[in-house]
Amino acid sequence: MNVLKTILIAGIALLGATFAQAAGLENMTDAEREIFRAEVRAYLLDEPEVILDAIQVLEQREAQSEAQSDLNLVLANFEELTRDGYSWVGGNPDGAITIVEFSDYLCPFCKRAYPEIKILLENNDDVRFILKEFPILGPDSTLASEAAISVLINQGSEMYEAFHDSLMTNNGPMNIKVLSRLLKGVGGDVDLMLEHMDDEIVAQMIAKNQALASRMNISGTPSFLIGTEMLRGFAPASAMQNFVDRARSQLEQSR
């Protein structure tokens, strides 16, 4: 009820401002203003659906403005988003459509998104998937990303993928003991991981991802770039498929 009341108040204020501007309220006498306000009130009581219509139009305009703002950010940072030279690339590396995910190993919604991404990649063989390590949930998040990047740099893409899968399906804590156990479980070299977790290049990669996220106004995980559209937050594979379909359609139209 409180939400509805807030919406109605906002709608009345919006319509009132519109009517006032159109009628030149500032040029009216006090008596004329009272008559005008009474007429507006009577109209809104007779036609309350007008308020909801106005709110819907306002929301559509705001959504369009946000989408345009996101597109501008994507175009300004497209090369770093899609071809930074250090992030892990999965799916079809030569795919025409690119999905970029900013992810945190302690983020529950990232873990929910993990199997959805798997489904999406299985159903679309023209999708190139880029994973950006973006630890934002504290020291254990950073520790997990440092371990993963160490594996990527020193043990290769396939081992990184296996380790990433293990990290995303682990629902317990993230500490050195757990990270070591998970890497050992997929056949990785634990000593090599530990040796290079504190390397400067690891910290630099995380810092670059954080700086890029800041420029993209990304403050939460998971966050996705799909084609040229931003998807901020979790979505099931079916919803992400709509983004992929639009990206594919745009490519076909541009050819």
Structure in words:
The chain has helices at residues 2-23, 30-46, 49-76, 78-82, 108-123, 139-155, 157-168, 176-185, 190-196, 200-215, 237-254, and strands at 88-91, 97-103, 127-133, 223-226, 229-232. The protein has 2 domains: 2-71, no CATH class; 78-254, Glutaredoxin, CATH 3.40.30.10. By secondary structure, the protein is α+β, with helices and mostly antiparallel strands. The protein is built from 11 helices and 5 strands; from the N terminus they run ααααββαβαααααββα. Strands 1-3-2-4-5 form a 5-stranded mixed β-sheet, sandwiched between helices. The mean pLDDT is 88.
Jot down its keywords.
single chain; 255 residues; alpha+beta; Glutaredoxin; 2 domains; five-stranded mixed sheet; 11 helices; elongated
Task: Chart the SSEs and their pairings.
Layout: H1 2-23, H2 30-46, H3 49-76, H4 78-82, E1 88-91, E2 97-103, H5 108-123, E3 127-133, H6 139-155, H7 157-168, H8 176-185, H9 190-196, H10 200-215, E4 223-226, E5 229-232, H11 237-254
Parallel strand pairs: 2-3
Antiparallel strand pairs: 1-3, 2-4, 4-5
Helix pairs in contact: 1-3, 5-11, 6-7, 6-9, 6-10, 7-8
